[in-house]
């Protein structure tokens, strides 16, 4: 039965792309009985909506678990992230220089850092900047660079050049997911490259991730976890989730 209407046709294109991976403009044009230019318009609109990714002459589905926006992530595991952020902030000592990565959990630390005397906070995330904007006693530095709108964080060569000129007593890193063997997972390589530089420049490294992120392979870009790093998660993390990290030399902490 033919698909009638542009909305129904576009929905079917997404379904076909997700199930079979790749479809050419010519194939789709023949299947739906419309012109190639109509299919190209469909593909253009679906690409703008983030439902497919274009290839030369065709359409390919995005990952079945596409990267969510910063606002969407802020609502996920809110209580657990706040517990993690509060525990992490309690590790910071007066007079230290610390690094805050981008991310919702790391950004939440800002609320708990405002009254630490002599503190210098260097950050790659807009949420941490917002939290610390009125903290007059905290020196705040932004690494700058190119803003990734989805993660609300800075990446790229300018950010990397800034990191190369600084060192930190502690670095607090976020993650899309964390795997004991593969490391810290992010959506793009430029994010994991930045994390590698953060790790190199820090005395103590903390990885903040609530239990739902442990052991997952959300995307395909990874930064290795250094031995002695501290994985900070929430109380719902199970022993079976944490055991592989300990075996890999990673310290683990459930935030109370």
Automatic annotation (TrEMBL):
Under the heading SUPFAM superfamilies, the entry gives: NagB/RpiA/CoA transferase-like (SSF100950), Winged helix' DNA-binding domain (SSF46785)
Tell me which SMART domains the record gives. Answer: DeoRC (SM01134), HTH_DEOR (SM00420)
* Domain of life from the UniProt record: Bacteria
User: What would be an example GO MF term here?
Assistant: DNA-binding transcription factor activity
Alphabetical list of Gene3D superfamilies matching this protein: 3.40.50.1360, Winged helix-like DNA-binding domain superfamily/Winged helix DNA-binding domain
- Domain named HTH deoR-type is located at 6-61
The answer to whether UniProt assigns keyword Transcription to this entry is: yes
Q: Which UniProt keywords apply?
A: Transcription, Transcription regulation
Has keyword Transcription regulation?
Answer: yes
Q: Which CDD domains match?
A: HTH_ARSR (cd00090)
PANTHER family the record matches: AGA OPERON TRANSCRIPTIONAL REPRESSOR-RELATED, HTH-TYPE TRANSCRIPTIONAL REGULATOR SRLR-RELATED
Stated name of the protein: Transcriptional regulatory protein
Supply the source organism for this entry: Mycolicibacterium cosmeticum
